[in-house]
Specification:
With 255 residues, the protein is of the alpha/beta class. It folds into two domains: 125 residues, Rossmann fold, CATH 3.40.50; 94 residues, no CATH class. Strands 5-4-1-6-7 form a five-stranded parallel β-sheet, with helices on both faces. It has a two-stranded antiparallel sheet with strand order 2-3. The protein starts with 8 loop residues before the first strand and ends in a 22-residue tail after the last helix. GO terms for molecular function: hydrolase activity.
Amino acid sequence: MTTMTTFKGVLFDFSGTLLRIEPAESWLRAALDASGTAMDDAGIARTAAALERAGALPGGASPVEIPADLAELWESRDREAAHHRAAYTGLARQVPLPAPELYDVLYDRHKTPEAWIPYPDAAEVLARLHGAGLRIGVLSNIGWDLRPVLRAHGLDRFVDHYVLSYEHRVQKPDPKIFALACEALGLPPDEVLMVGDDRRADGGATALGCGYLPVDHLPAEERPDALRTVLERVGLTGPAGRAPDPDTSRSTSYS
């Protein structure tokens, strides 16, 4: 006779799981506007496509090829904030841009709340888990503080703990980071479900004894309800109800 695991906590990956980065073209347009740099539509489309092939947009497509001089930075990018910036601006510099400051402007743009689109069911699922008393964590391989992004989108209020790779200098799929996350939630691994789009990195949670639920890394509009499967896995299969309105008292800018 098999028994169903009772999960008391859920860990969510950030990029490609709760939120999705904007398309490369809107990312480039925002950076051009911020720097006061002009480029025609054809040039924007061509340059955005080249940046995407280079893998220069964090949270976007992986590099088609990693230059040899960036290989070491790429491997350690999520363990050091400086390495994360250097790796992604280095990839971007493979593509000629009309102003040298644009490489840093592009990097800074991707860290803003405006650059991120929540998946349509993210608020509902987090609210229901929170309302049912489950512990919620965000566990991300990342090189910068994502908390202001979730705060701006009204999702931070549902999160009990954040475990970010660059703050601990360890990254998924290393069991150490999953152990840190479970400890933060105050739960043993077998009572924690990891949700994420990277089957290697996020799926590494199973080595520690956590459950794992994969979701597909798709644009937000193409994945409207995949996170609702989390509710089924934790036994919340009743009517969904209406998610709370965003907390408009929270600022949408960094503090």
